[in-house]
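Title: Comparing notes on inverse folding

I've been comparing how different people in this forum approach sequence design from structure. To keep things fair, I'm posting one structure and asking everyone to reply with a full sequence. Here's the target:
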């Protein structure tokens, strides 16, 4: 009887030691990091994590690895699982062009709301204001790919959309009408006419570098190439297209 009781005590102690929680940093495959006590159960098919008064349970195949010390900060640097799926980017800058142009570096401000599809890739929509010969509102779709999941990362982007005019055209054109009499020609009459601005397509690929200072705030610097074609309509089916080829230089803030 004593041997049976002794064996039972040893078994209970063994199970207690085996199931004892350990402390560490759990790295999940979705890029998140959780710091806390963890222990496997259900034949090591699942992992339980206790952190900051919360308890999470993950399947073992959701865990990338576990480390006793933090290996480096990531863009999703946190001690609890984050469900943030949106971030907002606001940028200020110039559209630098040829020094022979009437406007060498018009001002641009844009903002976009972006959905995080995975830790590297996001897609969103945005709009802004750009001061060209007239004032336009660019409306665009935005795609971004970050090369690293860390707080500091380079990225590439592509914006494509349409320049919507928000003021009347400043472009004018002249029609020359010859005037004749039955005796002698008179000087030509010159008519001044205005255009209706219709806006036009835009495309803006580029590269950037961003630094996240916290889970919810960061800054970025970006350089790109922007092409947009502005369309103008006049009387008697008269039309004019102006192509802009510009280098975009912008700084921005990121928040969510």
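Reply #1:
Here's my take.
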């Amino acid at each position: 009887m004593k041997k049976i009781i002794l064996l039972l005590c040893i078994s209970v102690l063994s199970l207690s030691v085996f199931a004892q929680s350990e402390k560490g940093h759990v790295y999940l495959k979705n890029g998140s990091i959780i710091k806390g006590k963890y222990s496997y159960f259900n034949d090591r098919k699942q992992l339980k994590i206790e952190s900051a008064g919360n308890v999470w349970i993950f399947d073992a195949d959701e865990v990338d690895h576990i480390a006793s010390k933090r290996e480096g900060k990531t863009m999703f640097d946190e001690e609890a699982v984050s469900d943030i799926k949106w971030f907002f980017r606001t940028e200020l800058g110039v559209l630098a062009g040829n020094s022979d142009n009437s406007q060498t570096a018009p001002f641009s401000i844009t903002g976009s709301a972006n959905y995080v599809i995975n830790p590297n890739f996001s897609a969103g929509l945005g709009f802004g204001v750009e001061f060209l010969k007239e004032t336009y509102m660019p409306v665009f779709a935005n795609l971004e790919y970050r090369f690293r999941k860390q707080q500091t990362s380079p990225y590439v982007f592509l914006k494509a959309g349409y320049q919507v005019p928000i003021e009347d055209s400043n472009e004018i054109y002249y029609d020359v009408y010859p005037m004749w009499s039955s005796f002698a020609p008179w000087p030509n009459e010159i008519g001044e006419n205005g255009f209706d601005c219709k806006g036009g397509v835009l495309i803006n690929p580029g590269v950037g570098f961003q630094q996240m200072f916290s889970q919810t705030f960061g800054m970025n610097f970006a350089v790109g190439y922007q092409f947009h074609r502005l369309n103008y309509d006049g009387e008697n089916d008269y039309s004019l297209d102006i192509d802009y080829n510009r280098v975009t230089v912008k700084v921005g803030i990121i928040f969510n």
